[in-house]
Amino acid sequence: MSDDQVVRLLTEIRDAQQRQLARQEEALRLQREQFAIFQRQAERAEQLQNRAEKIQDKSAQVIGTARRALFLVLPIVVLLIVYVSWLLFR
């Protein structure tokens, strides 16, 4: 091979290596971006989970209050129905 051919081949090899390095750097940049997106999504999912837990806790408190109120109100309503029935049918 002549010197010109060797120089041309070496230049092509160098150019190919530079293109490959550029592709690898681009792939690494994309991976970093994807990881950042993943981290944001994980943080958002955690925030949503925390919010859902708070809502469930509040719901449990409301249900507990409603149950206690039912035990108080239901006997009064039953007594009132019995009283009104007694007034109507005596």
Describe, in short, the structure shown.
This protein is an all-alpha fold. It has one domain (1-64). The chain has one helix at residues 3-89.
Distance between the termini: 126 Å
Our count of helices gives 1
Quaternary structure classification: single chain
Number of strands: 0
Residue share in helix: over 70%
Q: Which regions contain 5 or more consecutive residues with pLDDT less than 50? A: none
CA-atom Rg in angstroms = 38 Å
In terms of structural class, how would the helical and strand content be classed? Answer: mainly alpha
What's the story with the biggest beta sheet?
none
Order of helices and strands: H
Which of globular, elongated, flat, extended, rod-shaped describes the shape?
Answer: rod-shaped
Q: Averaged pLDDT, please?
A: 95
What is the total number of structural domains? 1
Beta fraction: under 5%
Provide tags for this entry.
90 residues, mainly alpha
Task: Characterize the structure shown.
The protein has 90 residues and is mostly helical. The protein has one domain. It is built from one helix and no strands.
Strand and helix layout:
Elements: H1 3-89
